[in-house]
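ok trying this again, last paste got cut off
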Amino acid sequence: MTSLPRVTIVTPFLNAEATLGEAIASVQAQTVADWELLLVDDGSTDDSVRIANDVAAADPRIKVLNRPPGSKRGAAAARNAGIEAGSGDLLAFLDADDLYEPHMLRTVLAAADANPEAAMIFGPTTWWYPDGERPDWVEPTDGLAGRLHQPPRLLRRLLLIQNGHVPCTCSVLLRKSAISTVGGFERFDLYEDQALWAKLFLRFPVFVTPVTLARYRQHSGSTSAAAERGVYDRMGKYPARAAFLDWVAQHLQESGLRGFHVRWTLRLARAPYVAPPTIGSRADRLILKIMMWTAKQRRRIRRKLVRASV
């Protein structure tokens, strides 16, 4: 009888013939072998499907999911399809243009074993410029690494205040039981991953490893390239973040899991998008002013550190 894999890795792909093979090879190069890789076709019209089918035919740990006509498209829906089809108790994700470091699974599995209460393990990612137009750099962990964080600390610090780097999808390990509790990825422009992290950070302990786990490829179609075109700013103000914060507010209301500090931190995060600010008493306004100033100083320092690293 064949035992079930411990980890299900989900890789959505859409016209990724140039990079898909390299991404798959980075999974096959892992120093542990107890995994399955689900390649989820999101409607490719190039040679991606042939590449996926060829590697699946040669490696029984790899399967190709062809989604039915009329099904929802996009990375969130494709990842959710992989989650539903997966056999492992643990889940990891790798986009078709990114790479795992060879020690990725060994590192996160060891952390999961050492921290059984953690619903999520994550670590830093290398921002990788394969064409050499910029130097590669590794996200700093800002004192978060090497310990377990109780909820909702990382929701407040990373997603609302933006005091630190949000986990890249390629550098996380999740317990499937936690996904069963909160649901999978949400459909969002640019925020499908952060919406899931928000649901987990609100409810479960999270462990952060100091070990760099993956390489996030930078190219003209990446999110960071969109930032340079003014579509997205991972540390600043822009319309997509306003929609995300509105969703967080609604989710907190529906969940009933709203403490004082979460409410105030969310209020601070949403303040730049409210005109005029909907703040009540003089004490409210004073507290908000102090929190906004603190967050502004932190963002300024964060931008300087990011610029210095590139």
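PB: full thing came through this time. Residues 7-228 form a domain with the Spore Coat Polysaccharide Biosynthesis Protein SpsA; Chain A fold (CATH 3.90.550.10).
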